[in-house]
Amino acid sequence: MAPFRAHNDMVWDGEVVRCATMAHHANLGGGIHGGVLAAMLDAVMGGNVILGLPADKMAVTSSMTVNYLRAGRIGDTLVASAVVRKLGRSLAYADGTVTVEGSDDPVATATGVFAIIRRPTPDPLVRF
């Protein structure tokens, strides 16, 4: 599991990212912080791009636009899903949506562009 997702209570579940929200995910107004939603969208879009790549490739975010449509609330289980629109040799394009589990009404949507790069060889000295 990616350290960032684990630290922020985000779980990769097949092709979606889930987050059972708690008080530490909230902004000052009591809604789920936009950064949590953006991180979920980035993770799910990038993750789904990576699923379509050969093992020696990976993807990194080049740009992302997020549209916040309504507030998520503490206690909601948020589910982020993505559709890869185009997977090219050097760039990939994806769309993402965050909903509250059990609802089709989006909390946030996003579009993302991802650069496809060679997967670096892991450094044995780096620890997460």
Task: Outline the secondary-structure elements.
Blueprint: H1 3-7, E1 10-13, E2 16-20, H2 34-51, E3 57-68, E4 77-87, E5 91-100, E6 106-118
Antiparallel strand pairs: 1-2, 2-4, 3-6, 4-5, 5-6
What would you say this structure looks like, in words?
A hairpin with a 5-residue loop joins strand 5 and strand 6. Strands 1-2-4-5-6-3 form a 6-stranded antiparallel β-sheet. The protein has helices at residues 3-7, 34-51; strands at 10-13, 16-20, 57-68, 77-87, 91-100, 106-118. It has one domain (3-118): Thiol Ester Dehydrase, Chain A (Roll). The protein is of the alpha+beta class. 18% of the residues lie in helices and 43% in strands.
Question: Any key phrases for this structure?
Answer:
128 residues; alpha+beta; Thiol Ester Dehydrase, Chain A; 6 strands; elongated
Question: How do you describe this structure in short?
Answer:
The protein has one domain: Hotdog Thioesterase (Thiol Ester Dehydrase, Chain A). It is 18% helix and 43% strand.
Largest sheet: 6 strands, antiparallel
CATH architecture: Roll
CATH-derived topology: Thiol Ester Dehydrase, Chain A
CATH homology group: Hotdog Thioesterase
Overall mean pLDDT stands at 90
Low-confidence stretches: none
Q: What gap, in angstroms, lies between the N and C termini?
A: 10 Å
Structural class: alpha+beta
* Overall form: elongated
Quickly name the level 1 CATH class.
Alpha Beta
